[in-house]
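Please review the protein record below. Tell me whether the encoded fold seems credible here:
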Amino acid sequence: MNHIVTVQDAVTAFADFMEPTNAELDAIEQEMPVILADVDLLDAHIVTLDRTPTEVDERRIRRARRRALAARVTLVNRVAGTILPGGAA
């Protein structure tokens, strides 16, 4: 006997109550500089996939890597500067 299964899970997976919360959207907004810097780094690497990197390509990758690291440091310093609830000494 073949059982008929419902597609309820697939339908409710995209229901209105599954939208990101404001806190999640704020977290994404805070991380956006890191995301964009990582995209630039990936773009720099993608350009060199089908060829040997030139000196200009290598400089572009180094600059993109530095920007990505700087964006991460800025994010970590910003998050570390926030006081977390709990009051650990």
Remarks:
- The first helix runs from residue 8 to 12.
- Residues 6 and 12 are 11 Å apart (CA to CA).
- The radius of gyration is 21 Å.
